[in-house]
Amino acid sequence: MRFLSMIRVEETGQIPSEKLMQDMGKLIDDMISEGSLISTAGLRPSSEGVRVRSRFGKLSRTDGPFTESKEVIGGYAMLEAKSMQEAIALTERFLRIHGTEWNLECEIRPLE
Predict the structure, then answer these.
(1) pTM here?
(2) Shortest CA distance to 62 belongs to which of 50, 73, 44, 80?
């Protein structure tokens, strides 16, 4: 079963340390080898994004940054797991890598 883990982060301009990038690279390699990680990517800042909305057929566009949002989706991981509990465990591995210097939240949802 596939799951999408969406990483929510406060846009503070915080930059990952070299150690975090190395640890993350190893975790990604391990999870790909295990078959539990299908794809993953970080997202550029919301200042580089655009939101397109449809309200009852009327389209509107908002250029970033999205100041009304305290937290934004900062990245994602598409996971292969036998159950929601396994997807949670995989996401917890990802969160632990960040240690105590980051304030993150992941939303995990099954894909149809």
Answers:
(1) 0.86
(2) 50
